[in-house]
Design a protein that fits this description.
This protein is mostly beta strands. The chain has one domain (about 1-80). About 0% of the residues lie in helices and about 50% in strands.
Length: about 80
């Protein structure tokens, strides 16, 4: 799934004292762009080559689907495109 990242929320601590954040963007690999929310993203724990900037196109791989609204619950890998 290719996504242009548009929103990065402030990090929050989970009950296990891990820091995660919610990110959202526009999915751009289909006929029409659609909003996508990815949560939780352990942004500070990502390897430096997996961190992304706002407005950067990324490929999200190995998503484990969750319940309500079809949102993804975990991001297993992020492959970065060129920063724009």
């Amino acid at each position: 799934m290719d996504v242009i990242m548009l929103v990065k929320a402030a990090p929050v601590l989970t009950s296990g004292l891990e820091e995660t954040m919610c990110v959202a963007g526009a999915r751009v690999d289909g006929l029409h762009p659609e909003w996508v929310r990815l949560h939780p993203v352990p942004f500070r724990d990502l390897d430096s080559e997996q961190r992304f900037a706002k407005y950067q196109r990324v490929s999200v791989v190995n998503l484990l689907a969750a319940g309500a609204g079809g949102y993804a619950s975990r991001v297993a890998g992020i492959s970065l495109g060129a920063r724009t």
